[in-house]
Amino acid sequence: MSEDATAQKQDSPDSDIEIRAEPDGASSPPRKRTVFASILIELREASPLNKILIALSVAGFVLGTVGWNVLSGLNDEPSTSDVMELNQKVADKEAELDALRHRELLDELARQKGVKPEHLLPLFQAAERELPREGFEQAIGDAVEALLAKANERVPDFKDDAVIEDVLRQAREKLKTLDTEGAIALLEGRLRESDEARQAERLGEARVARELAEIAADAFQWNKAAAAYEKAGSLNSADVWAWFKAGDIHKLRGDLSSALTAYETGRYFAESLGKERDRSVGYIRIGDVEMARGALDAARAAYSASLEIRQTLAGRDPSNTQWQRELSISHTRIGDVEVARGALDVALAAYSAGLEIRQTLAVRDPSNAEWQRDLAISHNRIGDVEMARGALNAALAAYSASLEIAQTLGGRDPSNTRWQRDLSVSHTSIGDVEMTRGALGAALAAYSASLEITQTLAGRDPSNTQWQRDLSVIQTRIGDVEMARGALGAALAAYSASLEIVRALASRDPSNTQWQRDLSISHIRIGDVEVARGALDAALAAYSAGLEIAQALAGRDPSNTQWQRDLSISQDQIGNVEVARGALDAALTAYSASLEIRQTLAGRDPSNAEWQRDLIVSNVKLASVGNKPAQRYEAALAIARDLLETNRLAPRDAWMVEDLERRLGEERAGETR
Length: 673
Hints:
mainly alpha
């Protein structure tokens, strides 16, 4: 406001006091005192009795602080702090007056109702906190009448037990004397006792449910076991592992949806209770389900969450062997995802990190069977990566190290089904190397050893889906050996046995992508036999069934390299049948579709020897149907020579370089004629 600002006038019904705004530092002309305005406003809002008391109580303050200045006509206006102090004095006096009036009212009600004043005191204190000043007396009176009416009500007959009825009657007796605090304390105490009793009862029921679950699981009554574990978890939220065990049963039986729900529930309770280790376990199990469903991104996210927690725990206490072991598990799971994605270098790094931890633990205590088993698993995983890279010697060394441990553990306790399964897996892996090297006798021996163990396990519990799948896998491997030996009847028998198992599994849970993939592979293998037998229509039907599944899986997740490769194989097989039927155009379409997929995969990871070999095959097949033969053979030969020079060409494929050189030479010779 400028220095020559005009005066502002504020009208009040109680005063004609003028208030003039002045700039900082300006002198104030004579004026009437604004402090009186504040006093009069307070008086205006008060009741008649309060007006008298307020006026009397503040008179001394006014005269003592600003009154003399006003009476003497001095120009100094009271400060803001003076006015605030005056307002506070007024409020304090009002509070003193209210307290006096409320005490008189309390004593009067106590005399009227014949009760102790101290019983009414909590009621008045609560009302003073919660109710406005206006209507206070009426509200207190109404409350007293309502409480007395409640006290004289007959206790309803709700078929309550005697203890409950007795508590209610005692509370009503206290209300008759308006002892509200006593009545409330009595009822709250009973509720606490009831809550404690209910909690104890729930915990007792949870223990019963746990016992039932464990017995039912040991008796192979999986449905009862899963339901009982879930009941135990719902009754006792602290029992996070009850949910995990329920999920394990659902997963074992192939119900991935129910398994995921159980694992998510367990992880949620673990998080809410601050149980970090259990939360990491929940993430691992969730990742396992996502892997089985083929959701690689979701699996990777879950495993990474687990890894982050476990790195923190393991870093917090490096001497805690359990946390170290679990950290190695998270590394291994991440490696599994990367293998499925075709990122072999990343997978190998993850597996190696897990192996390093496990070697340290195994050296610390060679008698610890669990740590020895973990070490065997790490060797096996690294062998898988080396196989995919075409490093057969490195793969065999890793598989052999795993087999040695598995044989030791399996021999220690033949009744331990987990160790027996590990032994069968190691035999299968050794067989895979021998098959790739072309040593059919050694491969068949290894596969047969695995089959014997797997048949025993699968026969022990036909409802165990993992063991049933293992049986189907080893049947397929044996069929591969028989095909390579030319024993078509034996091959068809093995493939058919595998198909029967995976068809049953896939129908049980169509969302299980692993089982769907197994079914696709079985169809393709049977198609191979039918081609060899010359039954082209039967072969085409089998290949088409496999192709349909492969297309569905590949379309679900284009980043899953395993599914993409499966699709390329199915396209190849369809092309083979079309060639045999003389439909070269149809064959060219199928082979071209296969090549497109394989070029993408090989470009993603040139170190993957298997994918490089697939490129050789696709180029040769396209050349065989007249598609740029010289160019195709030349491309195939370049890849084969590179694999040979880098020691990644499998011994069974050693003939490829010479054969491709011959084909390319013949083609070029034909072009010059």
